[in-house]
Design goal:
This protein has about 475 residues and is α/β, with parallel strands linked by helices. The protein is about 50% helix and about 10% strand. The chain has two domains: about 350 residues, Metal-dependent hydrolases (TIM Barrel), CATH 3.20.20; about 100 residues, uronate isomerase, domain 2, chain A (Orthogonal Bundle), CATH 1.10.2020.
Amino acid sequence: MKSTRRLVLNPDRFFDPHPTVRTIARKLYRSVKNLPIISPHGHVDPNIFVENKPFSNPTELFILPDHYIYRMLYSQGIPLESVGIRPQDGSPCETDARKIWKLFGEHYYLFQGTPTRAWLDFEFSIVFGIKKRLTGKTALQIYDEISEKLQKPAFRPRKLFERFKIAVLTTTDPATDALEAHKKIRASGWKGRVIPCFRPDGVTNPKAKNWRANIDVLGERAGMEITSYRRYIEAIENRRSFFRSMGAVSTDHDVNLPSIRGLTEGEAERLFQKAMRVEATNDDAQIFSGHILMEMARMSIEDCLVMQIHSGIERNHNRAIYERFGPDRGSDIPVSIDYTRGFRELLNKYGNDPRLTLIVFTVDESTYSRELAPLAGHYPALKLGPPWWFLDSIEGMKRYREMVTETAGIYNTVGFNDDTRAFVSIPARHDLSRRIDSNFLAGLVARHVIDMDQALEMGYDLANGLVKKAYKL
């Protein structure tokens, strides 16, 4: 029997039940609760701030942009079409937003004990003031209540941005993007700081979808014809410079390579021309991509863009879903990466240079204590990104701190990022992170590993200080 009780968030949620730890955690959390949100990596569409129109309805706001929601529903045999995900071939899908929301409410119990439930309950209660738990019985009433509020000026994107106390929001943008939305935000005079991030995967991996066409667009954007490897590198440098002029502070790279190593210019030219003829093999693409990562590290030293690497994940593992619905539909699965050997050449060439900030994210948590924390605890350039994707959970964040702090400390990490497409989940995710970090530090205080004044300083740094420093914000 599904509960229809009131939705009430316990003020001590996620804190340790031990009274000593809980008391300390409360104090630490209060010190960071209202700090500004800095979101250095995410996927919110910047156009919502250009148009600043009311969100259409709760389904489009909560469900359609959030693969955490529909991957859980799909795992229970619910077709993606029934929650409004349209197949690439134009086949029909459910378009009745109320019907989709009712289905969601009927299956909301599936999320009990998950971080998604923690985020959504925060959004319903704190952001929208909903008083009842979401169930099949209450779904349409809650849908109507949220819909009514979405029409009010206070719930438009820019007002919510300001209400959430977002100091910086970073989007993720292809190297070929003209950044028109960012230009319009700037021209509007609105003071919200929304900045791009340079994501070059579509032009650095010869096996990426439409790679050859992307190279042509890259050349057009850079104002040059790309006929050689050298011109290709110049075009990438040109685009990085443009992104910097638009406020970008970072690059982002999706990497699953057995090794990253440099090539001679002649070797790189040969592989580039092979790719331009659409003759590159999978091995060619891996070797070329690894070399370009070395080049990206060199460029980051020269132009000061922070270099982010997201790795340890098999994208689009479910081929049937990928072929029918396209990428980013919730079927990314962790895989192991050999960071010690695979990153050795990159770190030996550039890892000792403090001008480089290289932030590594992974979803293979076994590598944190075995490889990544020891590497970050040694190389000046390397920093550990926060738990990401499967690990941005209550227990995952706790394990992350336990696995890396003794070896790398917190000052070789970079705070928290929300990595989300679901805009209204941003304050919920940051609140969860601040609670988990406060609880972790409280445990150290209770065991007399650190003192309270140190915990307060560390709490601020985990919430704001580290991300400001790492991303030069």
